Amino acid sequence: MIIIGELINSTRKAIKKAIDEQDVEYLQDLAIKQEEAGTDYIDVNAGAYVYDETKHLVWLVEKIQEVVKKPLSLDSPNPKALEEAMKIHKGVPMINSISLETDRYNKIAPLLKDSGAQVVALCMSDEGMPESAEDRLEVGKKLIDKLDKDGIDLTNVYLDPLIKPVSVEGKYGPQALDAIEMFKKLESGIHITCGLSNISFGLPNRFLLNQAFIVLAMGRGMDSAIIDPLDKKMMSLVTATNVILDMDPYAMNYLKAARAGKLI
Fold first, then answer.
1. Any idea where the domains of the chain sit in the sequence?
2. 221: region left, alpha or beta (phi > 0 left; psi from -120 to 50 alpha)
3. What is the band of 187 on the pLDDT scale with cuts at 50, 70, 90?
4. What is each CA distance from 45 to 104, 161, 233, in whole angstroms?
């Protein structure tokens, strides 16, 4: 399971405040904690700064990479911000994200071709967000085909079905799970990820819904998620589910986590 740590996002009040005040220690500590918790990529987002996103994203990349070894997920639809952040990123980053929307695809795809970057690919087109699982599959297949034809290694692609909150429509949960299973059956070499906490938006005790959803989604074939890696129960469930799905041979990672006192 490939974990993308979601916490350094400027739309969160505490993060926005830390960026405004240049509180490097706070941001670096949060990055270190996510790395220690087992995240594979640390997402950095400066999208709250509409008019100077590039400057803030570059600053975040510089400061976070001073203290962690894990690569970053550069979270922006802004090709200029992504390009400048990629120039200073140490190692191969993840780009979050590209979609089938014509303008967005044409501006971001060139950044992927020679960099070898991983990329989150949203199931969204010029027609907007798909509704059903079948609609997601149709958009997803077109996006994968387009990336493949443009020379993008599909093993670097993380297809995101776009999770909608079950507080709006109960059917959004089953639809997302069905889409994940359909993506898995494509056998194209892609990964499957999602912004998992969207499932619980608008409901109390969101952590319970998030934890339930990640187990169900992993069972359908999802092998990555954008989550809070400091949620110890969530991370414990991921570790345990990997064993059940035979993704952790001889339960070695599970046993290691147990000995380290990381399972709750």
1. 1-91, 95-230
2. left
3. confident
4. 17, 20, 25
Please calculate the CA angle 169-170-175 and round it to the nearest 5 degrees.
95
Q: In this predicted model, what pLDDT tens digit does every residue of 90-113 receive, in sequence order? A: 999 999 999 999 999 999 999 998
Match 């609609």 to its residue by tokens: 135
Strands (E), the chain: 2-9, 41-45, 72-75, 94-99, 118-122, 157-160, 191-192, 224-227
Unique residue bearing structure tokens 């270190």: 32
Collapsed DSSP state (helix, strand, coil) of residue 243: helix
Q: Could you report the per-residue pLDDT of 27-84, keeping only the tens digit for each?
A: 999 999 999 999 999 999 999 999 999 999 999 999 999 999 999 999 999 999 999 9
Query: How far is it, in rounded angstroms, from Cα 190 to Cα 184?
Result: 8
Q: How far apart are CA 80 and CA 99, in angstroms?
A: 16
- At the second CATH level, the architecture of 95-230 is Alpha-Beta Barrel (3.20)
